[in-house]
Design goal:
Initiates complex N-linked carbohydrate formation. Essential for the conversion of high-mannose to hybrid and complex N-glycans. One of its GO terms (biological process) is protein O-linked glycosylation via N-acetyl-galactosamine. This is Alpha-1,3-mannosyl-glycoprotein 2-beta-N-acetylglucosaminyltransferase. The chain has seven helices and seven strands; from the N terminus they run H-E-E-H-H-E-E-E-H-H-H-E-E-H. The protein is 33% helix and 15% strand. It is globular. The protein starts with 7 loop residues before the first helix and ends in a 19-residue tail after the last helix. The strands form two sheets. It has a five-stranded mixed sheet. The chain has a single domain, classed as Spore Coat Polysaccharide Biosynthesis Protein SpsA, Chain A. With 182 residues, it is α+β, with helices and mostly antiparallel strands.
């Protein structure tokens, strides 16, 4: 394979990464007054309180400069380990799978977005410490999203069964989150 050819994986990775870059860039053009955005992928189910969850937590991004994002997903939020829909945690990684950032944080990512020659999946690239800059994310004990995509560009049915199948998703419609008053 010459250096000008790419594998199907690389083509898919580049196409998806470019799609996200364009979407994150264009959202401000279409919503110029917006101060933050929520990214939700097409293969996610949302909880009944998804909008309320972000409504209750969005101001935290304004109050605390050490926060980078609010995520609806808990990587460790399995049915056997997570049961308190009102509890929140701070984590030192980017969980993804339904997240909110400020305009400034998104622009910081766009300013250093990988070039075509850099072979990163967009979501793995976002998780790099050099992008997080020491900031943290807020996550729920019980996730507000559920990944239902059994297979996709970079996931198989076996991967889904291992990592996503037993994740809890909140089913309570009117959760009042704890510790969200700045």
């Amino acid at each position: 394979m010459s250096h000008h050819q790419t594998s199907d994986y690389d083509d898919t990775t580049l196409r998806i990464r470019e799609h996200y870059r364009q979407a994150l860039t264009n959202v401000w053009r279409h919503f110029p007054a917006a101060s933050r955005l929520i990214v939700l992928e097409e293969d996610l189910e949302v909880s009944p309180d998804f909008v309320s969850y972000f409504s209750q937590t969005s101001h935290l991004l304004d109050l605390d400069s050490s926060l980078w994002c609010i995520s609806a997903w808990n990587d460790n939020g399995f049915e056997s380990t997570s049961s308190d829909p009102a509890a929140l945690y701070r984590v030192e990684h980017f969980p993804g799978l339904g997240w909110m950032m400020t305009r400034k944080s998104v622009q910081q990512l766009l300013d250093v977005w990988p070039t075509e020659g850099e072979g990163y999946d967009w979501d793995l690239w976002v998780r790099k410490d050099s992008n997080r800059l020491g900031r943290e994310c807020v996550i729920p004990d019980v996730s507000r999203t559920y990944h239902f995509g059994i297979s996709g560009s970079h996931a198989s049915g076996a991967y889904h069964a291992l990592y996503y199948q037993d994740h809890a998703i909140n089913q309570v419609p009117d959760v009042q989150l704890r510790n969200v008053n700045g």
